[in-house]
Amino acid sequence: MKILVPIKRVIDFNVNIRVRDDGTGVETDNVKMSMNPFDEIAVEEALKLREAGVAEEVVVVSVGVEKAQDVLRTSLAMGADRAILVKTSDDVEPLNVAKILKAIVGQEHPQLVLLGKQAIDNDANQVAQMLSALLNWGQATFASDIDISGTKVRVSREVDAGLQTIEVNLPAVISVDLRLNTPRYATLPNVMKAKRKPLDIKTPEDFAVDVSLRHTILETLPPAARKGGVVVANVDELVDKLKNQAGVI
Amino acid sequence: MGRGLLLAEHDNMALNEATLRSVTAALQIGDVDILVAGDNCADVASAASQIRGVGKVLLAQGEVFEHQLAESVADLILELAEPYETIVAPATTSGKNILPRVAALLDVAQISEIVEIVSKDTFIRPVYAGNALQKLRSNETKKVITIRYSSFDMAETGSGVPVENVDSSVANSKSAFISEAKSQSDQVDLVSARVIVSGGRAFGSKEKFDELLRPLAARLNAAIGASRAAVDAGFSPNDTQVGQTGKVVAPDLYIAIGISGAIQHLAGMKESKVIVAINSDEDAPIHANADYVLIADLFDAVPELTAKL
Description:
- The structure holds two protein chains of two kinds.
- In chain A, helix 2 crosses helix 5 (about 190-195) and helix 3 crosses helix 4.
- The longest helix of chain A is centred in the N-terminal third of the chain and has 15 residues, at about 35-50.
- In chain A, strand 8 and strand 9 (about 160-170) form a beta hairpin.
- By secondary structure, chain A is of the alpha/beta class.
- Chain A is about 25% helix and about 30% strand.
- Chain A has helices at about 35-50, 70-80, 95-110, 125-135, 190-195, 235-245, and strands spanning about 1-5, 10, 35, 55-65, 80-85, 110-115, 140-150, 150-160, 160-170, 170-175, 200, 215-220, 230.
- Chain A has one domain: Rossmann fold, CATH 3.40.50.
- Chain B is α/β, with parallel strands linked by helices.
- Chain B folds into two domains: about 5-165, 3-Layer(aba) Sandwich (Rossmann fold), CATH 3.40.50; about 195-309, Rossmann fold, CATH 3.40.50.
- Chain B has eight helices and 16 strands.
- In chain B, the strands form three sheets. Chain B has a seven-stranded parallel sheet with strand order 5-9-4-1-2-3-10, sandwiched between helices. A five-stranded parallel sheet of chain B has the order 13-12-14-15-16. A three-stranded antiparallel sheet of chain B has the order 6-7-8, with no helix packed on it.
- The model of chain B has no long low-confidence stretch (mean pLDDT about 95).
- The interface between A and B is large, with 76 and 88 residues.
- Strand 9 (about 160-170) of chain A pairs antiparallel with strand 11 (about 175-180) of chain B, so a sheet runs across the interface.
C-alpha cells in the first residue's frame, strides 16, 4: 500500500510570533521555518508503517512556496521515498489545498492519507476532514494510535471526553495528534541521500484547481495584553484578594 | 436576517454547555435553529428547546447518529443545509471533526474558531496559538463556522420552542464506533468548570500531583487541569491538558501551580477571568499573564491554601 503524507512549511514552533505593526500579518523575515510539528508526526507514522511491512511507499507532498522544498527534503531525509511540491506564490486556503490533494490522490492512488490535525500557523484544522469528504472516504481525526489490519484501520482518537476508538475502512484519511509518536531525526548521511531522491514540482493549474481566496484577511492584530499580576506576600493575602477583591471564591 | 443551523454538542443524555455559549455567538450572526443529532436523545432536544432566542430544534435520532461519527452527521447536515445561510458548531473535538466535512461538501471555505463577531460576514479568530488575531471577511454566500465557545457567555434558558423530528436517509458504511474511554468521570468537567486548578511538572510525581491537587480541587469544586509537561511526565491523563494542543478553557478562576507558562499553555487559558500563579520561580513567564502571583514552594503553599479556603 502507498501512503500519501501532505506536509506544510510553517514558522518554527519555538519562534516568538510578532505581529507586524501595520497589521498586514506576522513577521516572517529572518524567521526560522520548519515542518509543521503535527505533520512531522504523520511522516514518522508513515515510515513506521513502511518499516512494519504494512506500506511499500511513502510519498510526501506540500502545497506552498518554492522554499517548501526544504521541509520536503527533511521528510525525504527522515526516510520518505518521493516528494511532490505544488508550487504557489501565496497562501492557499484549506479547501483549495484539499482539492489539490484530491487530484494528487487521483494520480497516486494511495490507500491512506496521513497528515497533521492542524498547522500551527493558521490553526484551521480543516484539510484532513475536507479531503476525506471530497474523496468520499472515511475519516479519523486526532489519532493517538493507529492499527491497520487488512482493509480496516482501528484509530484511537483524542476527544474532549477522553479517548474514542473507531474503525475506518480503507482507503481513509487520518489526521494525527501529538501523542501518536516521537518523530525521528534525520541523520547526516540520510540528509545527503535525500538530495538525490525525486522531487517533482507542479502547480495548482496542473490539477485545474482555482486557488483564489474566499476569505479576505482585513487585519492581523496582536492579542490583548493582560495587565501584569499583583504579587501577593503569602497564602493569607491570596485568599483575601480572591475573596474580597476578585470575588471569585 | 439569515437563518443559522447550530449543531448541538451532547452525549445523548445532557446538552453540553458549549452549545449554550455557541448560541450566544450564533445569535449575533442571525436567527438560530438547533440540530440535535444522536440516539435516544429527546431529553437533549428538550433542553435545547429551552434556550432563549432559538427558533426551533431539529431532532434527528437513530443508531447511525449515536456516536456522532463525522461521515453520518455531515451527511445529515447536508440534507438540512439548503434553507440556512450559516452552519455553526462549537469548536469541540466533535464540531471540529464534523464541520470541515460539511464545508467541503458545500464547497465553502470554513471559518474556524471565531472569538468575536464584527458583523454578519466579518469575524475575529486566533491564529498562531493565540499569539495573533486575524480579522477576516468571508465572501461566501453560505458560511460554515466553528465557535471558540469559551469566548462567549452562556445563552439564557427558559422559553420553550418546538422540537421537530427529522427523518433522514443517512447511512454510514465508512466508519464505526468501537469504544470510548472516559477519564476523570468522577470529577468536574474541565471545559465547563467555574474553577480550574492546574498543575505542572514542578509537582515531580503523579503521587504528589494527586495528593496535593485533589484536595484543593475538592475544596473549590474545581476541575483539575495540567500543563503539557505534566501530562507528558505521566502525572495527569491526556484529556486534562490545557493548551493549544489540549483544551482551551476560560473559567472564572484558573490557578496555575508549578506551571512556567509556555506559549502553548497560555493559549489554552489566558481568557480565564482571574488567573492565579503559584510558582517558586520569580521569572516564570506565566506571571505576566496572571492577576495574582504567589512566589512560594508549591509543596507548602498548596496544602496551606487548601486548609485556608
